[in-house]
């Protein structure tokens, strides 16, 4: 443990303090390079590739300048320390020793040079920021100019009729392209086509039959197995992958082979007909793969193998809507791609873009309605309750999102009709891609969680590393806790990039922020702070391992007095806290002078009335690290009894058995008496006192009480229950029966059952439980005469 601790400590300290000496930077060359980049950006002939290249060069330059500036800042601090060591400069014409004056002049010259280099670095960094802003502005202007370009509107009847005619002619040209291709062939090529047509068709049919047979074989032996009632997620995932292979990969392989054959057959791969076959085969490949993915995820006919938690009706409706959507989206995209490849007239390309936007918008609305809109919220019997507004149910959040998407897609398509085709296409396509990204990252998260869970189920974790299952469960929890935000941030950044945000510049700014920024002359580094906190808790964990080893591990076998052992454990805990704090401060790059200033400010605050706040805060830290109480413990603090629900830095919250909450300051817990019923475990003793007549058989009473305790399932047999003769009271012989339970939280139920059994068994054995009696002696001569006559 100490070896590991030493390695980690050295690593983190070196990471925070050691800097690599870089070659001296020539700022004149940097300024020339920045001028060249700025001139290229202002030329107006810049491309997206050029801006990315410029940005990469700027990032490298910024890193070098920042490293050089940090080194110069360290050198400046060193020189100033030397000047301070020489003492103040003489005043009023006084002379100082020759050697000291020479050293002061030398150090002052070094200080001026370092200041000059730091000023040059700041100027270079400022220019780099300006150029980054210029690149961002050029990108935004280019994007806006592209998507806000207006074309003719289809709302004019003439434009609409021309588009309709153009599209009809386009479909006719597609239909007659095979005949045109065949007519243009020579006589020899026509003979070749006729001779090989049956062979090609036969080969394709054989390939399709083989693919179908292989697909059926995979579905039968590796697909969904109906005899498994409750498959786990890993089984669902494996079956889904096999079904994806059977439904999509095999047809895609056949189509890919056909595409390869087309490219190697010049006779067909020429003219519009060859482009048509290539484009159609390519989009068929896309269709089969997408079809297989949708069917494997939603499994409309096998609900127990579904990867999503969604009911059968919604799964079927969403699946059918998706398949309908991808069919028409791929079809219209095929037309667009084909028209672009054969350089068809711009009018038909323009019309196809508007039609594609309309189809995509309709498909998005359809899928969102099936997936998000809750049809159970539709108002029943509206016609009979038109005047009663209370009968109209409020829409759920998912339904509101569905309506918002409907309005958004409708407005986006309307932009196409008014001539803003590129803007409409940008909004609709980016929305579809964003949804696909979210779905993809969701599936990746599920897949990674399943794989990590399967890895943790391997036996060698327990067999070789001696890690118990409880720690493995905790590991899986923390892994999931970090995985979800990580994938979420990645998906968010990917979506921002899709919508045209300059993510590279954004990430660079975030990196600069995390690496450090200046506040009032003080350098603050977020990464160093986080790294210091991590080192602090890692170091504390290592010291806690040492404490546990002294208490329960191998070191506990050392012959040592128990009081010395306890003192040693407490000392290690205190020393570990101090050492961890020192190392964490060193990793953060802090100085102990600043700590002294903070301590002085804290002392001043305490003197002004913050004693109670600071006392509770420090007490909270002690409680969290010493752990005299934990969440879930049954405690009694200053007469207040309850279960610990929450431990905060200022106060601790208890929940009484009457479900009331008690807030107790942390300082009261440490300064007063504390009873923890479940400090080390939930084992506790139950004591019940009962009195019997003086005429009772003492041995029989004790035997009966012990039997009652032994017959109770909640009372432990070891330690065995026992009975003590506790008191000779005025009216009874008092006995106390005691026993131990493994769960002290059931104390009330156990005591209630034992008391009921005592009453029943005592009645069976004629053992009487007395009640208080008083004998009154009356002296008649002391009574009044009228009472004496009655007596």
Task: Give a brief rundown of this model.
With 791 residues, the chain is an alpha+beta fold. Helix content is 67%, strand content 7%.
Secondary structure blueprint with pairings:
Blueprint: H1 2-17, H2 27-41, H3 48-85, H4 98-147, H5 157-183, H6 187-222, H7 233-263, H8 271-298, H9 312-341, H10 346-372, H11 397-417, H12 421-456, H13 460-463, H14 469-498, H15 503-515, E1 517-519, E2 522-524, H16 526-551, H17 562-588, H18 592-626, E3 634-637, E4 640-647, E5 651-655, E6 661-665, H19 666-671, E7 674-676, E8 684-692, H20 698-710, E9 722-728, E10 733-741, H21 747-764, H22 785-790
Antiparallel strand pairs: 1-2, 3-4, 3-7, 4-5, 5-6, 8-10, 9-10
Description:
With 791 residues, the protein is α+β, with helices and mostly antiparallel strands. 67% of the residues lie in helices and 7% in strands. The protein is built from 22 helices and ten strands. It has helices spanning 2-17, 27-41, 48-85, 98-147, 157-183, 187-222, 233-263, 271-298, 312-341, 346-372, 397-417, 421-456, 460-463, 469-498, 503-515, 526-551, 562-588, 592-626, 666-671, 698-710, 747-764, 785-790, and strands spanning 517-519, 522-524, 634-637, 640-647, 651-655, 661-665, 674-676, 684-692, 722-728, 733-741. The strands form three sheets. A five-stranded antiparallel β-sheet has the order 6-5-4-3-7. A three-stranded antiparallel β-sheet has the order 8-10-9, covered by helices on one side. A hairpin with a 5-residue loop joins strand 5 and strand 6. Helix 1 packs antiparallel against helix 16, helix 5 (157-183) packs across helix 10 (346-372) and helix 11 runs antiparallel to helix 12 (421-456). The longest helix has 50 residues, at 98-147. Residues 1-8, 15-22, 379-384 and 386-393 have low confidence and may be disordered.
């Amino acid at each position: 443990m100490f070896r590991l601790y030493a390695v980690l400590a050295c690593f983190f300290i070196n990471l925070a303090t050691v800097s690599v000496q870089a070659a001296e930077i020539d700022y004149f060359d940097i300024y020339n390079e920045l001028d060249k980049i700025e001139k290229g950006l202002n030329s107006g002939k810049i491309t997206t590739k050029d801006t990315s290249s410029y940005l990469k060069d700027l990032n490298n330059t910024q890193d070098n300048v920042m490293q050089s500036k940090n080194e110069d800042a360290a050198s400046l601090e060193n020189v100033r320390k030397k000047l301070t060591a020489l003492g103040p400069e003489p005043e009023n014409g006084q002379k100082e020793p020759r050697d000291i004056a020479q050293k002061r002049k030398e150090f002052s010259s070094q200080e001026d040079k370092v200041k000059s280099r730091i000023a040059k670095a700041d100027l270079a960094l400022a220019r780099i920021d300006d150029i980054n802003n210029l690149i961002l502005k050029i990108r935004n202007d280019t994007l806006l100019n592209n998507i806000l370009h207006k074309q003719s509107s289809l709302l004019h009847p003439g434009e609409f009729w021309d588009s309709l005619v153009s599209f009809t002619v386009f479909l006719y040209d597609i239909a007659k392209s095979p005949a045109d291709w065949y007519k243009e062939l020579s006589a020899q090529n026509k003979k070749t086509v006729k001779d090989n047509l049956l062979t090609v068709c036969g080969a394709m049919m054989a390939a399709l039959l083989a693919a179908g047979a292989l697909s059926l074989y995979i579905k039968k032996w590796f697909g969904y197995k109906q005899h498994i009632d409750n498959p786990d997620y890993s089984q669902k995932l494996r079956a889904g992958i096999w079904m994806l292979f059977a439904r999509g990969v095999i047809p895609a392989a056949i189509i890919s082979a056909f595409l390869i054959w087309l490219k190697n057959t010049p006779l067909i791969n020429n003219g519009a007909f060859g482009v048509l076959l290539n484009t159609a085969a390519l989009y068929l490949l896309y269709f089969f793969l997408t079809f297989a993915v949708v069917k494997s995820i939603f499994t409309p006919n096998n609900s127990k193998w579904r990867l999503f938690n969604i009911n059968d009706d919604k799964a079927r409706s969403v699946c059918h809507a998706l398949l309908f959507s991808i069919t028409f989206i791929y079809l219209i995209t095929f037309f667009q791609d084909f028209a672009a490849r054969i350089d068809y007239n711009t009018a038909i390309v323009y019309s196809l873009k508007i039609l594609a936007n309309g189809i995509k918008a309709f498909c998005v609305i359809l899928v969102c309605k099936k997936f998000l809109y809750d049809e159970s919220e539709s108002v029943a019997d509206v016609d009979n309750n038109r005047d009663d507004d209370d009968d109209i149910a409020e829409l759920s959040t998912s339904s509101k999102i569905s309506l918002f998407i409907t309005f958004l897609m409708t407005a986006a398509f309307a932009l196409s009709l008014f001539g803003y085709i590129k803007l409409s296409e940008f909004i609709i396509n980016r929305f579809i891609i964003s949804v696909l990204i979210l779905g993809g990252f969701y599936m990746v998260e599920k897949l990674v969680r399943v794989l990590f869970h399967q890895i943790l189920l391997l036996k060698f974790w327990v067999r070789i590393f001696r890690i118990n299952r409880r720690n493995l469960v905790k590991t899986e929890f923390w892994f999931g806790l970090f995985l979800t935000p990580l994938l979420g941030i990645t998906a968010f950044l990917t979506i921002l990039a899709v919508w045209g945000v300059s993510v590279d510049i954004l990430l660079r700014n975030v990196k600069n922020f995390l690496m450090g920024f200046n506040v009032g002359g003080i350098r603050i580094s977020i990464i160093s702070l986080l790294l210091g906190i991590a080192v602090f808790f890692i170091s504390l964990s290592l010291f806690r391992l040492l404490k546990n080893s002294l208490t329960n591990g191998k070191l506990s076998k050392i012959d040592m007095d128990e009081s010395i052992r306890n003192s040693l454990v407490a000392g290690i805990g205190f020393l570990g806290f101090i050492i961890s704090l020192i190392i964490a401060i060193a990793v953060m790059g802090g100085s102990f002078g600043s700590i002294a200033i903070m301590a002085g400010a804290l002392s001043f605050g305490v003197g002004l009335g913050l004693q109670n706040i600071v006392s509770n805060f420090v007490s909270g830290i002690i409680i969290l690290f010493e752990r005299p109480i934990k969440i879930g413990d049954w405690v009694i603090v200053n007469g207040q009894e309850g279960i610990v629900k929450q431990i905060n830095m200022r106060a601790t919250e208890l929940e009484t058995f009457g479900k009331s909450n008690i807030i107790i300051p942390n300082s009261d817990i440490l300064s007063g008496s504390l009873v923890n019923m479940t400090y080390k475990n939930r084992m506790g003793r139950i004591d019940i006192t009962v009195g019997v007549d003086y005429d009772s058989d003492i041995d029989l009473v004790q035997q009966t009480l012990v039997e009652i305790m032994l017959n109770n399932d909640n009372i432990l047999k070891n330690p065995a229950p026992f009975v003590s003769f506790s008191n000779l009271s005025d009216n009874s012989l008092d006995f106390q029966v005691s026993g131990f339970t493994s769960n002290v939280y059931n104390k009330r139920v156990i005591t209630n059952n034992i008391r009921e059994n005592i009453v029943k068994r005592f009645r069976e054995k004629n053992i009487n439980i007395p009640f208080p009696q008083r004998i009154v002696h009356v002296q008649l001569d002391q009574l009044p005469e009228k009472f004496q006559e009655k007596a």
